[in-house]
Amino acid sequence: MWPRLLMAASVAWAGVAATSPAGAAEKPAEKPIAKPIVGIVIKTSTNPFFVKMKEGAEAAAARLGMELRSFAGKMDGDTDAQVTAVESLIAAGAKGILITPSDSRAIVPVLEQARAKGILVIALDTPLDPPSAADATFATDNFSAGKLVGEWAAKTLGANAKSAKVALLDLNVNQISVDVARDQGFLQGFGVNVADPAVIGDEKDARIVGHDVTLGNEEGGRRAMENLLQRDPYVSVVYAINEPAAAGAYEALRSIGRDKDVLVVAVDGGCPGVRNVKDGVIAATAMQFPLAMAQMGVEAVLKYATDGTKPKPSDGQDFVNTGVELVTDRPVPGLPSIDTAAALKKCWG
């Protein structure tokens, strides 16, 4: 009799199980909502400026619940890699693309394809050519950054600025917008009449020894400085596109015993550069803020993905100005600046 009772109980339990809530678990689970994709395409993964930019994007994406996909060129100027990256993001259905273009003109056609798909395109640091090829630009005011160090050099030299011999170390032969803006800003700040503010090297001022290109690195800075010293060994002021190029220029000057009597200025604000200002390698630099630049870009992509709102430029400008500060331990009257102790708390890299 016990076996028959156990069998009956078993059948009864099976019937209960078939109609219990556990049966509901067998229904297909709802798919999780996909995170909006934002892509960041930087010039190179070796420059500390762009590394910090990527870190800012990563932190913002994690905080906002977005999926970040990162790409970089093999070197500054690697446009082909950037084109491939943008194509990949289009195929992935990205909501927005943040890009620091290696070539402001050559990258435009593929970015137009992205915008045609409804993807928000934001240029970081370097405007596109034309700037309207992006939905927005988040950048340092590079002209103002160059002008700051130019004004500082002129004020520091005083009357001697009229007889200075100036060497300019630019980025590359493409004359991309950030390169032109910093170069022309420096010249204007120093008191040089620039012929066409959109063109490097057409000024007629006799104080200009010449321009050379550095590719934005120390080796290039040293080589460019050596070339210009051959043209005129009595250079007294050096402008450099960034701090690695300025450090290379300093090494070239030191090799001929000129490291103590030449003013070297730059733009960037990376921690190695700020330490070089502290050590006297660079006399002054203009600090920009890549971390904030990228974070603001990711936030703008999320807002666009949420309600379709696009970022608006800063008042009086055609881009979103992310700020710049003059860094020097040799302040001059009438020109706001911070010293290296304060700058080391704000720097990057």
Task: Explain what you see.
It is built from 11 helices and 12 strands. By secondary structure, the protein is α/β, with parallel strands linked by helices. Strand 1 (37-42), helix 2 and strand 2 (67-72) form a beta-alpha-beta unit. It is elongated and about 75 Å long.
Task: Kindly list the characteristics that best describe this protein.
single chain, 349 residues, alpha/beta, 6-stranded parallel sheet, 6-stranded mixed sheet, 11 helices, 42% helix, elongated, disordered N terminus
List the helices and strands and how they pair.
Layout lengths: L1 H18 L17 E6 L5 H17 L2 E6 L6 H14 L3 E4 L8 H9 L3 E5 L11 E4 L2 H16 L8 E5 L6 H14 L17 E6 L4 H14 L5 E4 L2 H13 L7 E6 L2 H8 L5 E4 L2 H18 L12 E2 L3 E3 L12 H4 L6
Parallel strand pairs: 1-2, 1-3, 3-4, 4-5, 5-11, 6-7, 6-8, 8-9, 9-10
Antiparallel strand pairs: 10-12
Helix pairs in contact: 2-10, 3-4, 5-6, 7-8
Spatial order of the strands in the main sheet?
2-1-3-4-5-11
Number of strands: 12
Q: Tell me the fraction of residues in β-strands, as a range.
A: 15-25%
Rg calc: 27 Å
Distance between the termini: 83 Å
Give the H and E element order.
Answer: HEHEHEHEEHEHEHEHEHEHEEH
Helix/strand-derived class?
alpha/beta
Summarize the structure.
The protein has 349 residues and is α/β, with parallel strands linked by helices. It is built from eleven helices and twelve strands.
